[in-house]
Amino acid sequence: MTTIAPVSTAIAPKAPGILRCALSAAHMELRGYFRTSDTVFFTFLFPIMMLGIFGVAFESQGDIGTQPDGTGGISMAAYYLPGMVAAGILLSGLQNLAIDIAREKSEGWLRRLGGTPLSPVSYFLGKAGQILVTSLLQLALLLAFAHFALGVELPTDPALWLRFSWIFVLGIVTMTLLGIALSALPRSSRSATAVVIPIVLILQFVSGVYLQFSMLPEWLQNVAGIFPLKWLAQGMRSVFLPDHFASQEIGGSWDLGLVALNLGIWLVIGLVVSLLTFRWQRRS
């Protein structure tokens, strides 16, 4: 009598879904982020430190933007706050990602990940999740420090916080994609910092973060207007500064439509360049 072997009905385990992998990747990214002291300092605490320095150093100059009737003036700390919010998004998104991904690619981590079931979509969603969480934490600390330590009055109008929300989200997505795109430029992990940080510093100086934008010559304001940080900082100024400060902008108004348009254009540029240049390993 012939014995028939039983047919196995076990179902092969399915590969984890994209979202599940992305959440796991984001958790690992966050753990690695806060274990790296230099990354935490230069992308997380740096805007808070700079706001404190500017707020204390220029406190003796009195209020800025006082109108002829003596009203509407704000402290230097309040004036620099929107620029530091924008700089925090730039540092967390563009600078951090560009250096981090270039390092992982140069040291072979991405090549190893390419041999696993992890998809590039999950990998980048994990990176984006880390950027979002760290940016929100940084923002909370920055606003708390500005309000409680430096006496900056924060907006009370819900419409301004709604405006802040879409500018913040659009800025985060744009800077994240640009960081991924810029990571293709450094040729090694050693050169990543030397390539990325000068670009970031120059953008901050010409975009109204460390210098009053109205103090820059007109030609330099026009050059800064090509890049996204200028528009992100302008959008943040429209949230945190009194309305009469809009007259100091190039167009004499906040131009929120142009803020959205320019950030949207750079978002698309970052997405296209990322899709064209990303590889699990660098081409020789």
TrEMBL record:
Organism: Leucobacter viscericola
Family per similarity comment: Belongs to the ABC-2 integral membrane protein family.
PROSITE patterns: ABC_TM2
MF (Gene Ontology): ABC-type transporter activity
Name of this protein: Transport permease protein
InterPro entries, per the entry: ABC-2_transporter (IPR052902), ABC2_TM (IPR013525), ABC2_TM_bact-type (IPR047817), ABC_2_transport (IPR000412)
Keyword field: Antibiotic resistance, Cell membrane, Membrane, Transmembrane, Transmembrane helix, Transport
Domain ABC transmembrane type-2: 38-284
Keyword hit for RNA-binding: no
Chain ranges passing through the membrane: 40-58, 78-102, 131-152, 164-185, 192-213, 256-278
Chief location bin: membrane
Classification of source organism: Bacteria, Bacillati, Actinomycetota, Actinomycetes, Micrococcales
Cellular component terms per the entry's GO annotation: ATP-binding cassette (ABC) transporter complex
GO aspect biological process, one term: response to antibiotic
Membrane association type: Multi-pass membrane protein
Location relative to the cell: Cell membrane; Membrane
